[in-house]
Amino acid sequence: MKNRIAQVEELMRHELANIILREVEMPEGAVVTLTRVVAAGNLQQARVYMSVVPDEKGGEALKVLSQNIYEIQQILNGRLKMRPVPKIQWVLETATAEAQHIEELLDKIKKQG
User: Fold this and answer.
1) What is the pTM of this model?
2) Residue 30: CATH number of its domain
3) 95, 8, 80, 83: which is closest to 49 by C-alpha?
4) What is the Cα–Cα distance from 5 to 40, expressed in whole angstroms?
5) Across 88-111, average pLDDT
6) What is the pLDDT of residue 41?
7) Tell me: the pLDDT tens digits for 16-41?
8) How many independent structural domains does the chain possess?
């Protein structure tokens, strides 16, 4: 069952990335990357984690995706040949921004040393 969930997660990430790229008008200058999908064990819901560059556009991108969630879900339901298709929940990835901040701090320390 674990393998099936991992396959569904990867398939959803791939399909949702294509849908967002082709079907959704993102805020100008925002680059959205779907980092991972975490599906519930019963495949009823899935959290879709995304990172947005620049960080300041994260809120805008999340708002656009939330406003279009119904249409995105409908397109996804049509593309995936499975039932049920997990319900999407958007989550802004903070781990990427935190890692970048840590890298910047480490660089700063190296330069001072």
Assistant:
1) 0.82
2) 3.30.300.20
3) 95
4) 8
5) 82
6) 92
7) 999 999 999 999 999 999 999 999 99
8) 1
DSSP-derived secondary structure letter, 54: S
Q: How far is CA 64 from its chain centroid? A: 13
> Which residues touch 37 (CB under 8 Å, ≥6 apart)?
9, 10, 12, 13, 16, 46, 47, 48, 49
Query: Domain containing 102: what range?
Result: 2-112
Of the candidates 53, 41, 43, 39, the one whose C-alpha atom is nearest the C-alpha of residue 93 is 53
Whole-angstrom distance, CA of residue 70 vs CA of residue 52: 21
Rounded percentage of the chain residues whose pLDDT exceeds 70: 97
Which residue did the predictor score with more confidence, 108 or 18? 18
Beta-carbon contacts of 112 under 8 Å, excluding residues fewer than 6 positions away, are none
Residue 51 contacts residue 33 (beta carbons within 8 Å): yes
